[in-house]
Amino acid sequence: MDPEKQSDCAVYKTVIESETQPAEDSVVLSSDVDPRLEFPAYTRYAVVAGCFVIQGLVCGLLNSWGVQQQYLVANVYDNEPSKKKTLSYIGTLMFFNFYFWAMLAGWLAEVWSYRKLCFVGIVIMALGQLLASFCKEPWQLCITEGAIFGFGVGLLFGPSSTASARWFTKRRGLATGIAVTGAGAGGLVIAPLTEYLVHSVGVEWNLRISALYVMVLGTIACCFMRVPFQDKTRTLKNFDWHAFGNLRFAANGGMVFFVAAAFIVPYAFLPEFWVSKGISSQTASVLIAVSNGASLFGRVLAGFTADHLGVLNSVILILVITSFSCCVLWPFATDISMGVLMSIFYGFGTGGYWALSPLVAAKLFGVDRLASISGIVSTTSAIGSWIGSPVANAILNRPGHGNDFIAVSMYAGSLWLAALVLALLNRTLYAKKIFSKV
Q1: CATH classification for the domain delimited by 41-228+242-430, as one of 1.20.1250.20, 2.30.110.20, 2.60.120.10, 2.60.40.1570
Q2: Farthest-apart Cα atoms in the chain, separation
Q3: What does the alpha-carbon distance between residue 97 and residue 79 come to, in Å, rounded to a whole number?
Q4: What is the pLDDT of residue 35?
Q5: Which of 15, 116, 331, 382 has minimal CB crowding within 10 Å?
Q6: Over the stretch 196-233, which tens digit does the pLDDT of each residue have?
Q7: Where are the domains of the chain?
Q8: What is the pTM of this model?
């Protein structure tokens, strides 16, 4: 047998001493079963494709909220400061739910079904968009877009970012990187599509159309979601709570906390920043699309780098790039050329981080319970997503601030730098040799 095949098969040679029947989207494999005989050769690549589409829908719509927010601020609630302030909480609510429900999603994916859970998430996500199309007030959007839609993406992101890693060992980084490039591809398409729709048919119909394509494309993608092994004997009673006492877990959780707070800030405020500098809203949406396009390349290259330089080393490099983009590039991104540069660096860095995040968890805690461990880390960091945009909005709207976004960019950059410090700590805890591949 080919060495790579032997490596890939090793992870599946697990004996389940239970008469519990597996779900239709998983197979219990014994130590003498080759999964390549159990599944068609294309199965694991179909899983990667399914993850790609779901990631595109989830992250594309999340990252495009800033385009919709800018339109509402400029054209609907331009003379109502209190309502504009409420709008700033919607993106925050989305990302809070994105993280808050991750532990539940990870546990359900492992003990119930990746496929069924993803389908439930798609339905809730589409429902949130549809209900939002009938809203007339920002507080109503907080419920539909922030809470309901956010709950749907919270159920989807963890399973769709970890399923592909279950099928690979030697090239796990590259496979995961390709799967999560869907997030960049989704943003590359959805951001300009959102800009076009809100100006041509209005916010309400933009939301209805997005609900339609989420339901159609998401349902198709769910058909491919499965894992090669699922332990149906696990329950909430034997949930692994010991991770909370692990120092590596604490450092990793802290890193995710600061990333959760930092990530949405540029996407939520860059469109407004560029418009304040004389760049049109249409061009601003294109710059967001450029960022999402760079994210696509960042995810693939970060996964490739992780396979060759090590996961923990790679995440440090990625956090250096994101910190640089906020602290150094953003203050000078006042014209199209610098805006493109800022978009590329930030998109590349954040895309790389999301590709590496599940791989970091797999490196530190193992792959068998990857979804649940990643979920614990995300849920414990949910509060970080809650403070991101509101604090940035408070900084921006303080008396005498005007359109000076330097403080906002430094705030976002400091959060990324804090994540970098904790990533360095985790790297040191794992291996003290500077040039070792970890």
Answers
A1: 1.20.1250.20
A2: 71
A3: 29
A4: 44
A5: 15
A6: 898 888 888 999 999 999 999 999 999 988 877 666 66
A7: 41-228+242-430
A8: 0.69
Residues present in the chain in total = 438
As a whole number, the mean pLDDT across the chain is 79
- Burial call 261-283: b when 16+ CB within 10 Å, e when fewer: bbbbbbbbbbbbbbbebebebeb
pLDDT of residue 10: 41
Distance (Å, whole) CA 402 – CA 276:
10
CA distance 428 to 275: 43
CA 287/CA 327 separation, integer angstroms? 18
pLDDT tens per residue across span 283-326: 887 888 788 778 778 888 887 888 788 889 999 999 999 999 99
- Coil, strand or helix at 403: coil
Tokens linked to 3: 């060495």
DSSP 8-state secondary structure symbol assigned to residue 90: H
d(CA 23, CA 25): 5
- CB contact at 8 A, 339 and 333: yes
List Cα–Cα distances, 426 to 2, 109, 367, in angstroms: 34, 27, 18
DSSP string over 365-402: H-STTHHHHHHHHHHHTHHHHHHHHHHHHHHHTSTT-T
Q: Where are the alpha helices (DSSP H) in 277-335?
A: 281-309, 311-324
Q: In angstroms, rounded to a whole number, what is the distance separating the alpha carbons of residues 206 and 76?
A: 15
**Residue 326 DSSP code:** I
Q: How far, rounded to the nearest angstrom, does the alpha carbon of residue 145 sit from its chain's CA centroid? A: 17
pLDDT above 50 for 98? yes
**In this structure, are residues 260 and 82 in contact, taking their beta carbons and an 8 Å threshold?**
no
Q: At what angle do helices 150-162 and 172-200 cross, to 10 degrees?
A: 150
Give dist(CA 286, CA 193) in Å, integer.
10
The letter for the amino acid at 83 is K
